[in-house]
Design brief:
single chain; 221 residues; alpha/beta; Rossmann fold; six-stranded mixed sheet; 10 strands; binds adenosine-5'-diphosphate; binds magnesium ion
């Protein structure tokens, strides 16, 4: 069960600023949900709390019926794509993709099988031995996506800074993320501050403003 439930979620920073205010939301197992709202409205804070990178001030986050609040980030079975790929440039593609499994002490044959199916899915099998510094930006993006799926996550969290700048690369990233959601059946939370992009995805959109979820009518007015 890979549904996500947020119950009265709040985030207060030490200076007293509330960046997420009483957010409650249910995301179905296998659903693709787009979070949209202006810069600073709290989208990344929600994703970071789900991912365990940000402490929860109050409220609850469930994966299926498991309360995630006290589960360590590495045990949450989530994959995250943030910050322009964050790959290790001195390592090759295989080493980057397999790192999470190596750190979790998976046996070599299982790591190989999983890496192979991830790179076949993303059509980058031919670059496994190349160093990151010698591959194209498009290949880096696919390497980062392969690294995300190789741990067989239940939920995939994609922030808008994962792929920025180049519209063609962003469109390709979106096609891959949609394929990951549809074919691998991974519940996906996708952030964008681009309204047209959110609409074009034709998925459920969660509209946010000033730390709160608001109805679409209110967002558009
Ligand atoms: P979004 O991803 O929607 O652009 P964020 O979730 O990154 O927004 O940020 C929400 C709000 O929280 C912003 O107004 C930001 O300035 C504020 N914020 C982020 N980090 C801190 C912090 N450490 N202290 C105080 N305010 C913060
Ligand atoms: Mg953000």
């Amino acid at each position: 069960m890979s549904s996500i439930t947020l119950k009265n979620l709040n985030k207060a920073y030490p200076n007293g600023f509330l960046s997420v205010k009483n957010v409650s939301l249910f995301i179905e197992d296998g659903e693709f949900v787009t979070f949209h709202g202006p810069s600073g409205c709290g989208k990344s804070t929600i994703l970071r709390m789900i991912g365990g990178l940000e402490e929860i001030t109050s409220g609850e986050i469930y994966l299926g019926d498991v309360l995630l609040n006290e589960v360590l980030p590495r045990d949450r079975r989530l994959a995250m794509a943030f910050q322009n790929y964050a790959l290790y440039h001195g390592l090759n593609v295989y080493e980057n993709i397999s790192l999470g499994l190596t750190l979790r002490d998976f046996p070599k044959n299982i790591i190989d099988t999983r890496v192979n199916s991830a790179v076949e899915f993303l059509k980058i099998s031919h670059i496994l031995n190349k160093k990151i510094r010698s591959i194209t930006e498009a290949e880096k993006q696919k390497t980062a996506l392969a690294r995300a799926i190789v741990c067989h996550p239940s939920v995939f969290l994609v922030d808008e800074d994962f792929s920025r700048g180049n519209p063609r690369r962003r469109a390709e990233m979106l096609r891959d993320v949609l394929r990951i959601n549809q074919e691998l059946k991974i519940t996906t939370l996708y952030i964008t501050n681009d309204y047209q992009e959110a609409v074009n995805l034709k998925k459920r959109i969660v509209f946010m403003k000033d730390g709160e979820i608001i109805p679409e009518e209110e967002y558009l007015s």
